[in-house]
Amino acid sequence: MSLPDVDVAGAARTRHPLRWVASIVLLVLGAQLVSLLVTNPNFQWDVVGRYVNAQIIGQGIFTTLLLTVIAMAVGVVLGVLLAIGRLSENPVARAACGLYVWFFRGTPVLVQLVLWYNLSYLLPEISFGVPFGPEFVSADTNVLITPLLAAILGLGLNEGAYMAEIIRGGLMSVDHGQTEAASALGMSGARTFRRIVLPQAMRFIIPPTGSQVISMLKATSLVSVIALADLLYTVQSIYNRTFQTIPLLIVACLWYLMITSILYVGQSFIERHYARGATRNAPQSFWSFLTFRRRPTPEVPS
Amino acid sequence: MTVPMVRARGVRKHFGHLEVLKGIDLEVWQGEVVVVLGPSGSGKSTFLRCVNHLETIDGGSIHVDGELIGFEASGGRVRHLRRRQVTRQRREIGMVFQQFNLFPHYTVVQNVIEAPVGVRGEPRDQAKERAHALLRRVGLEEKAHVYPRQLSGGQQQRVAIARALAMRPKLMLFDEPTSALDPELVGEVLAVMKGLAEDGLTMIVVTHEIGFAREVADRVVFMDDGVVVESGVPSDVLDRPQSPRTKAFLGRVL
Ligand SMILES: Nc1ncnc2c1ncn2[C@@H]1O[C@H](COP(=O)(O)OP(=O)(O)OP(=O)(O)O)[C@@H](O)[C@H]1O
Ligand SMILES: [Mg+2]
Hints:
- The complex is a heterodimer.
- A two-stranded antiparallel ribbon of chain A has the order 1-2.
- Chain A has helices at residues 17-39, 45-52, 55-87, 91-106, 109-117, 119-122, 141-144, 147-172, 176-184, 189-219, 231-242, 245-274, and strands spanning 125-129, 135-140.
- Chain A starts with 16 loop residues before the first helix and ends in a 28-residue tail after the last helix.
- By secondary structure, chain A is mainly alpha-helical.
- In chain A, α3 runs antiparallel to α10 (189-219), α3 packs antiparallel against α11 and α9 packs antiparallel against α10 (189-219).
- Chain A is built from 12 helices and 2 strands; from the N terminus they run ααααααββαααααα.
- Chain A has a single domain, classed as Orthogonal Bundle (MetI-like fold).
- By secondary structure, chain B is α/β, with parallel strands linked by helices.
- In chain B, a hairpin with a 2-residue loop joins β11 and β12 (227-232).
- The longest helix of chain B has 16 residues, at 183-198.
- Chain B starts with 5 loop residues before the first strand and ends with a helix.
- Bound molecules: adenosine-5'-triphosphate and magnesium ion (MG).
- Magnesium ion (MG) is lined by residues 44-45, 175-176 of chain B.
- Chain A: Belongs to the binding-protein-dependent transport system permease family.
- Chain A: It is a multi-pass membrane protein.
- Chain A: It is found in: Cell membrane.
- Chain A: InterPro entries: AA_ABC_transptr_permease_3TM, ArtM/GltK/GlnP/TcyL/YhdX-like, MetI-like, MetI-like_sf.
């Protein structure tokens, strides 16, 4: 039996009729959405346009960003410490950090916020001293816990529990041989952590942390319950006066979307930095996601 | 009177109920190359890891260049060394692993200078210069600026050797350095190790490469079940083994 002589160059492409159907359906739905946005007067786009650049909105955005940055910073620092604690050889530290994560992940952040805000009912005075013994300093809780501090505590302490799990997962994903090689070279534990383990763990830590930042940005809107003038609270206080509820909520959403888009771009840059040496292929350019052409991955000379 | 580079006396180690080392005695002299042979699970890796205190021994003692490893003996009392002191001792002992364990997020030259610069405080320029010389020695100077994952296994292992040498160790430990390599890559790594032996570096090598043992080793040690069964010059141990256990092992690997 002889095989036929075939050349596959110039073969006809496979047809995908279902893809065409799906695309057309989606395009029609998209067109309807656009027409709804344009023709429905209840969106009051003129009101949106008037408020989107208003100074008072800018102040709200500033508060939102400030809270996001500080609460995230608290969360990351706490997360690193808790992760180290949970991975340490000290059983007391392990249990304490585990308990912390259990508690703060297991209760709603809204409850935590309100609790911090109302801490004075529980502890009228905050003092430092020996347990059951003398006090060194003390202060009135109502003076100490401002709404901003309550928000930072509520969001930051809660974030610490989530970051601890993310960081712990990242640290555990680094091969034990790395620590061993560093020890064999005479590197200290702290140096090994900083120079060898953490940078490699970052590859696994950055993507979920990016999602956490975006969640945090939106979670800051919860602080409106403790009367802190963030972006959402600001638009609420406007539409409570003017009853232009929908357009003002659109203003808030536009800004939230704007900020998350910027965060997304920033995250891509950071991810690329920590991907150094992670694959055999040369790193792809950041802007490559803009080009639809599929480039052949460069062959690495060996 | 001189002291041996390594002196192990009655070294014991167990993991839980499993007794892995049951009293290892071994002396390695300055400039000597000792190849350790033995079946899987006989405790070869464990012993090597005890020498640089990656494992803490449970009994006996290990001295490297006259210094007690991992412990401190004074006035008839023995105590564990602090972590910082152990770290200092490890700087004098290079180790090469079966799985290379290069730092994947650093380029080849960064791998080599990381410890000399970060641990010994050597000036970066000087460390780089030495790194390039070391890479030339292992035949990889042109790979200085690539990442480890872009190298073949044999090339990675040669970088790992250069990285260990950059600390100017008195003693080098090799734990099956060619076992993870494709057969055609084994030779390039063994050639580098042979060069080091000829330059007079003191080496303990765990390997299954009998040819390397015959050609390069000053002494071959056969370990089985946590003890040194037999030790001597390669021709004696490999060609005229005394113990039936050695005979059985060699019969399987030769
Ligand atoms: N960290 C550990 N915990 C528990 N058991 C261990 C540990 N390390 C080694 N062992 C056990 O100790 C024994 C000796 O191990 P070791 O790795 O020293 O053997 P080896 O001679 O190097 O073997 P191979 O040729 O397979 O590498 C094995 O039974 C192993 O399972
Ligand atoms: Mg082994």
